[in-house]
Design goal:
single chain; 366 residues; alpha/beta; 60s Ribosomal Protein L30, Chain: A; TIM Barrel; seven-stranded parallel β-sheet; 34% helix; globular; disordered N terminus
Amino acid sequence: MSICRGASPSPVASTAVWIDLPPNPAPFRRPTIVPVFLPHAGCPHRCVFCNQKTITGQAGRDSSPDLPALVARFLREKPPSPQHVELAFYGGNFLGQPPDHVQFLLAEAQHLVRRGWIGSVRFSTRPDTIDAQRLRWIADSPVDTVELGGQSMDDAVLSAAGRGHSAQDTALAVDRLRQAGLRVGIQTMIGLPGQDARSALVSAVRFADLKPDFVRIYPCLVLAGSPLAAAYRRGAYQPLSLEAAVATCARLWRLFARRNIPVIRMGLQASDELSDSAHVLAGPYHPAFGHLVFSALCRQAIARGLHRLPAVGRTVRITAHPRRLSQVRGLGNTNLTALTERFALAGIRISGDPDVALHRLGVALD
């Protein structure tokens, strides 16, 4: 995060600093996603943190969904934008399923492409399922994006999480997918058993070195029915606090942004199941987790700016793009309260200016 002085698109005062957040690179495209959840399908064993039926809210869902009916219903309820539509298989280990079932699902998807309902397919799978044989299964299919559940690049952490694959498996998988001409996403987790802040950061650096097309960052939660729940109950596992998870995620976001790698999601998609304490026993779940992370990034940036100004006892004006204002304020104005107290300010005024770049914040004495 850098601070620069000079003219701004919209002057806020004669004494001002302008702070640049690393701009989050836009993904190659933003398709309309039609999600198909296959909880635990193709999974050879249970990772300690996993209970896909809780995450997806689809307990008992068949692993052979009626794809035409599902896509038709989705497109009817959520008409897509002019951008293309992508069918996405989530929640399981797609290439770990029996080959005839994988080929059946991809053949159904191919029919939907020919009918003009979807444009392509993506799926999530384990790194150790990416081999020459399985790549042949999808060679003539409409798949163009594969998301790998890498989770960590620390072999000790992967072992403690019961992943059953190594960091090298992830590196090899990315290389093989690149050679096959496919786009690659990586899913990483923070707060895993045996993982500390340094391990999480080193893993993020190693993931960034693989140059994925995008990443997702998920905090580890203690889900009812998962193996981790028993470890939590006997005191053998302590999840990250929400504050620590937000701070770690903010650090990783900055790293990926500086490496020009889009972060397309931080935190699990909000759902009734995840908001129920009977399903999430502990851990840093928040329905607006991504907003909390961006609010933290804004608060840190504003603090850097205030350190450059004689702001004690003064009223400060913060200028940002209108889309950034809620993150500048923080949920319930928490950023404004924290900054006012920390820097002994008389007050903070907020103004939106559409001419200010989304990644810039102006801090000035009012």
